[in-house]
UniProtKB/TrEMBL annotation, chain A:
Gene name of this polypeptide: tgmA
Pfam family, one: Strep_pep
Name of the protein described by the UniProt record: Putative ATP-grasp-modified RiPP
Domain of life, source organism: Bacteria
Length: 63, 318
């Protein structure tokens, strides 16, 4: 029997996100293609959604 | 003295704190336990009546004698990136890494033992009651009759998951859902169900706590919106003051739970009451800071870099 709670799962569209930054091991920060830290572009961070509540819950259960 | 951040390389929320630590001039090492063994190296020795240990990754080296604090942010499982990963290798690596870090007695945000306990929703509700929060009636049960009686008593009831969506299927979500009348609760016998009285809300509240600094944000709820995490609306997060009663309860909760960081979720009803929904010991804060400009990353960096009385002896967690 399927657990009751699982009757309420919904399909989730998997985001196709190409993160426009990469990790710089020496800076210990993600950087954009032009070398600026990714955190310098707040609009970008909001757009890619990697800091939102549900972003965390997909891999960890701490929203 | 160095701040250690345990997280993945892709974690840009951690970047926000690393940037603040750099601004403060506080040394930092960022390490993903998934990279041990391999990219990251550890060594600890217990000899001559003392203990010392070292971590190194990407050319950065950290001695346990110079470890100020640990932020457990989004760490991978130990050894997950190893050439030949296994459950046994993960267990061995967890023993080596966390055993070494516990021996160094740093300040923890949050201590893994306290974090494990704090993730349990039934326990959260109990601590929330003790702390003076308003908590909606809730039941966890594997008894269909109990679930049926709860729904009959409270009429409007939501079902939610205690642990999140199934981790092995990234293509599904499990939002909090209002269940309608005439539901067959028979399947409750197949797995614990978490049912809660629905709180009609006019807004979602996110209260982010960093030590004794509290940041509240409010987002209006759309008509009929049950789970604020799902469904795009025209509303955005806005900074709001923290009521004194909520401050007292939140600090009491953190103390009882042994947490240095937590993100609370509340539903604000039409009378302005903040109903406790849950407390995420490792909750995200980037989305709040980006929309409200509340200095949460700075507060985390200040807490982690704060100079504390030095103690080489292991301390109890309580």
């Amino acid at each position: 029997m399927r657990p009751f709670t699982l009757n309420y799962v919904r399909p989730r569209a998997l985001p196709i996100v190409v993160e426009p930054y990469s990790f710089d091991a020496s800076l210990q920060l993600n950087v954009l293609g032009d070398g600026r830290p990714a955190v310098a572009d707040r609009d970008l961070l909001l757009a890619v959604g990697t800091t939102t509540s549900t972003a965390g819950s997909q891999t960890h259960f701490d929203d | 003295m160095t701040v250690l951040i345990l997280t993945s390389e892709q974690d840009v929320t951690a970047d926000m704190v690393v940037a603040e630590l750099n601004r403060l001039g506080a040394p930092v090492m960022r390490l993903d336990p998934a990279d041990i063994p391999g990219k990251a190296v550890l060594s600890a020795d217990y000899a001559h009546g003392d203990f010392d240990g070292h971590l190194s990754v990407n050319g950065h080296v950290l001695s346990m004698g110079g470890l100020r604090s640990v932020w457990v942010r989004r760490p991978g499982d130990p050894a997950a990136h190893a050439a030949q990963p296994s459950a046994w290798l993960t267990a061995e690596t967890r023993q080596a890494l966390y055993g070494m870090l516990y021996s160094a007695s740093p300040a923890w945000m949050n201590h893994p033992g306290n974090a494990d306990q704090a993730r349990h929703k039934p326990w959260q509700l109990r601590v929330a009651h003790f702390s003076g929060f308003a908590v909606p009636p809730t039941v966890f049960t594997t008894a269909p009759r109990v679930a049926e009686q709860f729904a009959e008593l409270h009429r409007d009831v939501v079902v939610k998951s205690a642990s999140g969506p199934p981790p092995d299927d990234p293509a599904v979500a499990l939002p909090t859902t209002l269940i309608g009348p005439g539901i067959d609760f028979g399947a409750v016998a197949a797995g614990p169900a978490l049912l809660q009285r629905y709180v009609p809300k006019r807004a979602d509240i996110r209260l982010t706590c960093v030590g004794d600094r509290l940041f509240a944000a409010r987002k209006r709820a759309a008509p009929g919106q049950i789970d604020g995490r799902y469904g795009d609306t025209e509303y955005v997060w806005e900074a709001v003051p923290v009521p004194d009663r909520i401050t007292t309860s939140a600090l009491e909760y953190l103390s009882l739970a042994g947490l240095a960081y937590a993100a609370f979720d509340f539903a604000e009803d039409d009378e302005g009451v903040w109903w406790f929904l849950e407390c995420n010991q490792g909750g995200q804060f980037g989305f709040v800071e980006l929309e409200t400009e509340q200095p949460i990353a700075e507060a985390v960096a200040l807490w982690l870099s704060w100079r504390r009385p030095e103690s080489r002896a292991p301390k109890p967690r309580w």
